[in-house]
Amino acid sequence: xxxxxxxxxxxxxxxxxxxxxxxxxxxxxxxxxxxxxxxxxxxxxxxxxxxxxxxxxxxxxxxxxxxxxxxxxxxxxxxxxxxxxxxxxxxxxxxxxxxxxxxxxxxxxxxxxxxxxxxxxxxxxxxxxxxxxxxxxxxxxxxxxxxxxxxxxxxxxxxxxxxxxxxxxxxxxxxxxxxxxxxxxxxxxxxxxxxxxxxxxxxxxxxxxxxxxxxxxxxxxxxxxxxxxxxxxxxxxxxxxxxxxxxxxxxxxxxxxxxxxxxxxxxxxxxxxxxxxxxxxxxxxxxxxxxxxxxxxxxxxxxxxxxxxxxxxxxxxxxxxxxxxxxxxxxxxxxxxxxxxxxxxxxxxxxxxxxxxxxxxxxxxxxxxxxxxxxxxxxxxxxxxxxxxxxxxxxxxxxxxxxxxxxxxxxxxxxxxxxxxxxxxxxxxxxxxxxxxxx
Length: 439
Ligand code: NAP
Ligand code: HSE
Prior knowledge:
Blueprint: E1 3-4, E2 13-18, H1 22-37, E3 44-50, E4 67-68, H2 72-75, E5 82-85, H3 93-102, E6 106-109, H4 112-128, E7 133-134, H5 146-152, E8 158-164, H6 167-179, H7 183-192, H8 201-204, H9 207-221, E9 230-232, H10 240-248, E10 251-261, E11 267-277, E12 289-296, E13 300-307, H11 311-328, E14 351-361, H12 366-376, E15 381-387, E16 395-402, E17 405-406, H13 407-419, E18 423-432
Parallel strand pairs: 1-3, 2-3, 2-5, 3-4, 5-6, 6-7, 9-11
Antiparallel strand pairs: 8-10, 8-12, 10-11, 12-13, 14-16, 14-17, 14-18, 15-16
Bound molecules: NADP nicotinamide-adenine-dinucleotide phosphate and L-homoserine.
């Protein structure tokens, strides 16, 4: 039912995009690909996408009937039920969002600047017009943090928020720390990955993190946190040698955004580079990753981490908001009892490396026997250790690490290894979890 059409079909929820840049294109692709895979049953129709320059070459070709430079094609279009604002900046985003809400449309936005500066006003307009305004993607990219602060953590008094919430500067600082890279080169790289704001000074000078901190503080402390009340410093004065010296002292350097409530109900909010002890988790949040640590009086310390910028992670949050609105507002519903057609894969087909510890007779040929059994099962050995030979030299611990193997093959080998005369006991077989490409 998801279609690219000038008119939403009768039962589909019409979606209008304001912006078809890094995030907007990824959202459009996600909407179309979700339809192809039929994972969700909510029918959505991408009705219109508003841009500044309709003739620009884009990573997605939606056709001339969809792409336009006329915002009214979305705001005034009766076929559009959900407006998705992905242009950025305070204006004209504020005008377009507020007009859409007043026109009875739900709105999803990834725009932290408008949610920081005009969020209260917009949320009130949404409530007055009985429509929803969702903004999960505005802080932390793909990390769900607005939802938990809005819903799941409301029972808590939030004592502190400490966060890395700008992907671009974290990417830059990480490259400087580990590669001694040049600031301007890494900034250009972050821009090429689509992490940076249209004007990257928003990232580098801490404005983006400040807007995001203000949005988080409003939710956590139920108060307006104006940007004038937030101390802000960027990362321009950080040099490679600062990382060397900090490291000698046991620290790394991160652009930290923090809000802490004090006993007398004061609130201190700040964005600035900070030395972080190397042994705390925040020190290992590298590259485009973001992390938000929330301290609540009931729940204690919670840790949210994930990709804080980039097209697809941000689309994850935006499309999630679109689907939530379509479900909760009743403009369409999907059958949650309709399960995806997955085959259940048996454990026998699992493939991983194995760690095997044997107690074996300490005599010639023992390892060869074990290796032969593994080889016959198509399993190759990646490392062998012989440990703890006993005083009489009659037995030893043999530790074998294999290359990736199929579970069924390993279980066949294990039953044969147990029968070998030279193997006194197979003490342990532990699967190695595969994190390849994720470390
Ligand atoms: P972008 O690549 O610069 O795209 C902006 C889009 O909006 C473009 O398609 C542009 O049209 C259109 N646009 C801008 N001003 C317009 C105007 N006045 N009228 C009509 N169209 C206009 O920006 P982005 O990176 O996708 O970011 C979009 C929003 O998501 C921002 O609020 C940003 O802070 C937020 N966000 C971004 C990321 C990220 O990783 N990039 C992550 C989380 C949140 P043209 O294409 O014709 O220029
Ligand atoms: N420019 C932002 C960042 C995009 O680098 O974190 C995500 O909001």
